[in-house]
Amino acid sequence: MFANRRLGILLLAPATLFVLVGFIIPVLILLAGAFRTGDAWSFANYTAFFSQPLNREVFLRTFRLGLIVTAVSAVLGYGVAMAVVEAGPKSKGRLVALLVLPLMISPVARTYAWLVILGRTGFVNVALTSIGLTDAPLRILFTETAVFIGLIQLFFPLMVLPLISSLENMPRDVVPAARVLGASWFAVFFKVILPLTREGLVVGGTLVFVGSLTAYVTPAILGGSKVLMLETLLYQRVSVANDFASAAVIAVILIVMSILTNILLKRLASVRRRR
Amino acid sequence: MTARNILALGAMSLLVLGTGSALAQQKTLTISVYGIAQDAYKAALYDPFEAQCGCKVVVESGTASERLAKLEVNASAPAVDVIAFSDANALEAANKGLLAPIDPAKVPNLADIYDFAKDPLGNKMGVGYTFYGTSIVYRSDLVKIESWLDLFKPELAGQVALPNITGTQGPITLFMLQKAIGKDDPKFADAIDLVAEHKNDVVTFYNSGSQLTQLLQQEEVIASVTGRFSWPSLMKLDMPIAWAAPKEGQTGGMNVLALVKGAKDPELAHQFINYWLSAEVQQKLAEGLVDSPVNTKVTLPEDKAEGLTYGAESAKAINFLPPAQQLENRDAWLSGWNSKVAN
């Protein structure tokens, strides 16, 4: 047993060393940079970061878009997940495959497709002007709307898949039972389905929210320099301004926001369970 | 360890030492350049130079800010001998004490290059190897451009893109706008106000030449500002795109070669700089539409000249933004831009 354990540790060592030297230590060094001003430890980098109106706006925009994308994909996600669960076994497989398909296409390719669809001469604008809804093409690209559309499309499957699995785990009879006892469809959803599937919602919500916070390609291509998000700002700080201090600050903010979201959503789910 | 193992180890270390000394016999020159068109540079410049000097050219490439950061980190033991930069980046490096002056006596080809490229940074800290004009490109079938202020014409509202302040083209666009407004201000306050006033009319502030090509191709915009280096790819779009001759003139930029302080072999570095400036190399790079030549002895056919900034006339027409002004005011431009335009 002891020999085996030693062997086990030995076998683990190369990978651990690799992760430690190649990932954890550099990340710690980088993150530590966010708390250094000159030779002292301080929060000065943070106060400097948030004293700039542009940075505050980018922070709020990232947070706001993350919340909206999560909320909208939750609402749409329940609809789709219920439809998938209700479908027969054969079409269920096909529907899930269709849902997963976009995940297998590179985000860059997917985002470039939106560039063509949402452009001035793109599908959406041609359709809108030809049925006479607008006179001039709408400006969709390089706005928050474009980033929102791109993010929804990017992360929607990550919301639907956990919802499908928790809907499938929900006892089948609870919905008819609630209906028989006189609950409206509205009450059935909020009092029966939602509490029973909240774990799926927590998993999906975390994935979508954190994904939206940290997405780079979509805001870079669809938002451009007029709709900066934390990730695109981070890239700009590093590659253009050579300003690693504020880049490290942004990295810390993103990591903290991701961890907090996860803790918060988990707590939300477990509090309800105890009740 | 058995005797056989020791023997094997000994043999291996001998082998390693042997190859080490063989490598040391060959001189190496390490250069740091922009990552673009490396195949063309290899054919026109690196390979012929290696054959000529009997040395090895090691190429490091990357964006300007990456390479500047590297140069700073390695200041005490430089890994690079010759570095290619924009004039402003080179001046920044020079001010930080990272560059050494070039000895004109060791660069005889200096005699053949345009005067403005001979010592653009002062103190012989760099020599221009290429330059380009920057102007407005526009759809000649849809709009007419005669001044830099035409970028904000009502018919262009919602159909114009400008270069972002974070690139090289952004500041020189502000430079020309400020000139067009007619007030003298190195901080470009009026130009930034003008862009801010029209920021909702600007589709996006683009970051790279390839992004601009795409914007024009998809008819997202019908006018923008760019360097001549984008012209070949814009012509390939097969659209009625024209290069404006605004009444305030064109602007542009210059790239320079600089000698890194503490370079291992300054002699070889000078040789390389001299070779890069030679009519032969400049001719080949121009024919490949890689770099507009600074060497006055280069002659180009019409179709090649079209894709470049070529000739004494075009060179004279360019308003260069002095690198010292760029360095001094860069932070002011950026903060003005961030609070008024990006917000």
From TrEMBL, chain A:
Record bears the keyword Ubl conjugation: no
The membrane topology term of the UniProt record is:
Multi-pass membrane protein
What does the entry list under GO cellular component?
plasma membrane
Localization per Swiss-Prot or TrEMBL: Cell membrane
**Keywords, comma-separated and alphabetical:** Cell membrane, Membrane, Transmembrane, Transmembrane helix, Transport
Question: What PROSITE patterns has UniProt attached to this entry?
Answer: ABC_TM1 (PS50928)
User: SUPFAM superfamilies under this entry?
Assistant: MetI-like
Q: What is this protein called?
A: Spermidine/putrescine ABC transporter permease
Gene name as annotated: potB
From TrEMBL, chain B:
Naming one, the record's GO cellular component terms include: outer membrane-bounded periplasmic space
* GO molecular function terms attached to this record: thiamine binding; thiamine pyrophosphate binding
Question: Record's InterPro entries?
Answer: SBP
Q: Which keywords label this protein?
A: Periplasm, Signal
Which BP terms in the Gene Ontology apply to this protein? thiamine transport
Q: Which domain of life is it from?
A: Bacteria
Which residues does UniProt assign to the signal peptide? 1-24
Could you identify this protein by its name? ABC transporter substrate-binding protein
